Amino acid sequence: MKLLSHIYSIFTFVFFDIREMLRKWTGIPFYTVNALRYAFLKQPAGLSISSGCILPVLHDRFSQAGAVRGHYFHQDLWMARKVKNIAPGRHSSGGSVPKASGPQNGHVDVGSRMDGFVAHLLSFMDVTYVDIRQVDSSVPGLKYENGSVLLLPYANNSMKSISCLHVIEHVGLGRYGDPVDPFGHEKAAKELARVLSPGGRLYIGLPVGRKKLCFDAHRIFKASEVPAMFPGCTLEEFALIDDSGAGVKEKASLTDADQCDFGCGLFIFSKAGPGNEEIGSRNK
Known about the structure:
Blueprint: H1 2-14, H2 18-25, H3 28-39, H4 71-86, E1 107-110, H5 114-122, E2 127-131, E3 142-146, E4 159-165, H6 184-195, E5 196-208, E6 212-214, E7 218-220, E8 234-241, H7 254-257, E9 263-270
Parallel strand pairs: 1-2, 1-4, 2-3, 4-5
Antiparallel strand pairs: 5-9, 6-7, 8-9
Helix pairs in contact: 4-5
């Protein structure tokens, strides 16, 4: 059964989702009836059905109002609340990032979801966003810096508040245009640890469970092995979104998370020491 499910997943990625197509087809009769009813009713000027502007949306009536589940929804909301409670240098003016403060006094995010986590943060603070791909935006409070999680444009021990959610599992797989490197995830983790300042917080989200590689989509990590990926850092808090995706389990067990197939581990790290020479090597 798992093999068939896996084959179907590959098929939908490469071609199309048969179940989604069937759901759309079931909406055709509803669309046709509604269109005929609308056409025979009195219509406002300029808002009548036109053959040059027909856009059938066939499946919304069969969907829920929203998806209040899954990794991204719960991860982004939970982590944003944590940053709001902990992060220093908060700016709520909605203006541009103050030049005098610099990213070390605000919050830096590396590659997380822009329309989820980063958008949450921008509602109460300014964010410097780092990614290897270009971001074109004039959103107040959002500053973009081109850079790689493998070589961040910041000095050792300089970031008081930095996040990287659902990114590390992709590094080194080539999916986003980065070089193929089987140890890319380890190098990314060390680089994030390098720039974290003593007393600062590093917010990490990644897939956890039975360790494996799903090329070129992502890696799944053994949760109990993740803290060792961040040298010089101490795990302050761990929470889990398990296989059900129904919500966040606070103060979860790393060993329990190891039993997931595809959970999401939420890690908050700190750094107590003055710096670590191994980290300062920039992954050479």
